[in-house]
Amino acid sequence: MLGDGGIAPYCVTITLSNMEVSYTLYVNKLIHQLFGVSTKIYKRKDVNAVDIVIQRKRLVDFCQEIGLVVGNKVRQQVVIPEWIKRNKKFSQACIRGLVDTDGCFFRHSYFINGKKYSYLKMAFTSASLPLVLSMREILTKSGFGVRISKNHKDLRIEDGKYVARYIKEIGSHNQKHLQKIKKWKKIRNVLK
Question: Could you tell me if 39 and 56 are in contact, meaning their C-beta atoms sit under 8 angstroms apart?
Answer without folding.
Answer: no
